[in-house]
Structure formats: C-alpha cells, structure tokens
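Intended use. Records such as the 3-dehydroquinate synthase entry shown here are meant for training and evaluating sequence-to-structure methods. They are not intended to support clinical decisions.
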Amino acid sequence: MQNTPAVPNTVIKVTGELPKENYDVVVGRGLLNQLPALLGERVKKVLVIHPRALRLTGDTVRDDLEAAGFTALTAEIPDAEEGKHIQVASFCWEVLGKNDFTRSDAVVAVGGGAVTDVAGFVAATWLRGVKLVTMPTSLLGMVDAAVGGKNGINTAEGKNLVGTFHPPAGVLVDLDTLDTLPRNELISGMAEVIKCGFIADPVILDLVEANPEAVTDPRSEVLRELIERSISVKAKVVSEDLKETGLREILNYGHTLGHAIELTERYSWRHGAAVAVGMMFAAELARSVGRLSDEDADRHRSILELLGLPLSYRRDRWQALLDAMKRDKKTRGDLLRFVILDGIGRPRVLDVPDQSLLFAAYQEIASEA
Ligand SMILES: NC(=O)c1ccc[n+]([C@@H]2O[C@H](COP(=O)([O-])OP(=O)(O)OC[C@H]3O[C@@H](n4cnc5c(N)ncnc54)[C@H](O)[C@@H]3O)[C@@H](O)[C@H]2O)c1
Ligand SMILES: O=C(O)C(=O)C[C@@H](O)[C@H](O)[C@H](O)COP(=O)(O)O
Ligand SMILES: [Zn+2]
C-alpha cells in the first residue's frame, strides 16, 4: 500500500518594525511538537490558558510541555465570552504571581478567539509583557483572533473596551482541532473569512460561492485554502499597521454594528453572526451614499445567506444599537465612522456626521421583533 504524502505545513509571515513584531503563523496538522522550539530555551515556566470546554486539549499541551522539560501549569477559564472579563484576567494574574512567573516565562493560549483575547491581555499586562504563543482551536480564532496581536476584554459598557496590542511569538494553527468544532461555530468563523473576501481577496468569495458545502467541512482542501487566504489578508494588514493608526481599521468591516448587536444581545449571539449583520448594514450604507454598486451590495446578501448567516436585526433596538456604536473605537468625538466598500476589495472609512443616514440604512436590514 502506498503512503499518502503528508501535506506540508504552510508558513505565513507577519512582520513589523521591531524584532518582537516578526513571527510565523504555521498552518498544518499535528503541530503541538513545534511549541517547545517556539517558546525557546529562555522560557522555564508556561501557563496554558484554555476554556472549560477544552480541558483535555489544555492538559495535553501542558503534559507535552512538561515532557519537553518546561514547568507547565493550566488555567481553566469560563467558556466563550464569559472568559473575556477582568475577573478572569485577575484569576490568571493570581496564578502567575503565586507560581513566581518572571519576565522570561510565557503564556500559551489554547482555544477560540475569546481565550486568545483574554490570554493575550494577561500576557501583555503580566510584568508589563511576557511571551505569548497562540494555538487557536476555532475557525474564527485561526483566521482572525489569534493573529495580529490585538487582545481585549469586555466591560459593562461594551465589547473589547479594554485591551492592548501585544504580538505573539508565534501562532500554531492546527487544523486537526477543527474536527470537534460545532457547525454553528464553524459558520460564525466563516463570517470573518467572508469579511476578508470583501475587503481584500475576492477569490475567497468565488471559492465560497462555488463550494458552499465544502467550506463547512473541516477536512476539505477548500476550507484550508480559505483559512490560508484569510490569514494572509490579516497578516498583510497588521504587518503594515499593528496599532491601528489607519489601514488596520479595514479589519473592522461589519464590526461597528456587529459589536453593538453582541452587547445588546448580552453576548448570546456568536461574534461572526453579529458581524454578518454588520456587513449587511455597511453594504446598505455604502449603497445609499452611492459608493457600492447594487450588484456588489446584493452579493453580501447572497453569500451570507448561502452559509445560513443572519442578515437582519430587530427594528425596535435601533436606539440601543446607536448608543453602543457611539462607544466604538473608531468614533472620534461625536463623529461615528464606518468601514464601507467602494467596491469589492476597496475598503475605506466613511465619516458619518448625519445619524439619519445610518437610520435609513438600518431600515433596509431591520426585521420585526
Ligand atoms: N483579537 C482579535 O483580533 C479578534 C479577532 C476576531 C474576533 N475576536 C474575538 O474572538 C471572539 C470570538 O471567537 P470564537 O468565535 O472563536 O469564539 P469562542 O472563543 O467563544 O469559541 C466558541 C466556542 O467554541 C468552543 N471551541 C473552540 N474551539 C473548539 C474546538 N476545537 N472544539 C470544540 N469546541 C471548541 C469554545 O469553547 C466556545 O464555546 C470574540 O470575543 C471576538 O471579539 C478577536
Ligand atoms: O484585528 C483587528 O484589528 C480587527 O478588527 C479584527 C476583528 O475581527 C476583531 O473582532 C477585533 O477584535 C475587533 O477589534 P475592536 O478594536 O473593534 O474591538
Ligand atoms: Zn471580528
């Protein structure tokens, strides 16, 4: 019998001005054995932060690190958005403190975007910054959250209102972990993939439209290509603008309204689902100011619908959404700012001083309660 040749790993580079801003995103299968080398010889202790739902995976990572000679501990945190809380960060700081973690030790984040966000924040703030390696286990974490160094926690006033930029030393995207990811989470991750298609890589949109079934099959080659293309979009943007002084804002396509929906729904909506509605809104806004053609605006509806992502949100929640959007990080003073498209692959930021424009665009996507 012939052996099937192993598919080689793909390495996508993120670069920056400082040495610590240069790192690799490795995409492949069975990557755990790469972790010790990535941490390097100076690191003695490692805290593996993982959600409750991934206890076994967290323990495996810890055991492997122990076997490789590190002192490794786990910190199990609440699942999903509940983990992005100051009390969770505080719990992790306590574990680091009680175990005498120094500046030459490290944090490894194993989980979805919620975990990489809070663990990234912990790594950025402990002793003002220790080494971080991210090991995303959700599609959304792989294509977006684990790459780029943005981290954050939520406050009562809104999503991601506290956080820093702290690039990881490396990202290990082990595609095997997708085998256990629930389908609705895979579809949520697809919203960020689609976002990358709209803002920078139209081939992504073509691939999704041509292979609607394959994109939610964790073992498909199409999904792997979509993952690599999306990471490449993100890597290129953050390599040019780590701290979001300009270009990086395009990664926020669909997020101004999306984050407001998440807050209004008390985080019962998946991030990608909320971003999908946010992209529908951004497309209507762009259409209404004469920037986006009907064809490109309508493509938002057709492609998101193909994946079963939501396209609308409650009409009666407009005021709550507007209040939440005022706290978006792109807002300057009283001026709300939205990422819109001039065409597919041509994002720009639109200043919207006139709230009636927003209201009118919202009417196009609003549903009855
Ligand atoms: N920092 C960034 O650049 C950035 C980018 C995009 C999104 N985000 C943030 O990421 C979060 C969303 O990430 P997410 O969609 O991964 O959600 P998540 O982290 O909440 O994970 C979704 C669910 O899937 C579970 N899960 C994860 N991997 C699994 C696996 N392999 N098998 C079984 N279950 C698994 C999790 O435990 C959780 O219940 C949001 O908080 C969002 O704000 C951050
Ligand atoms: O990496 C970025 O920059 C992004 O905007 C990616 C988004 O997908 C992500 O959800 C991010 O967390 C949003 O950041 P925020 O600054 O709007 O909170
Ligand atoms: Zn996002």
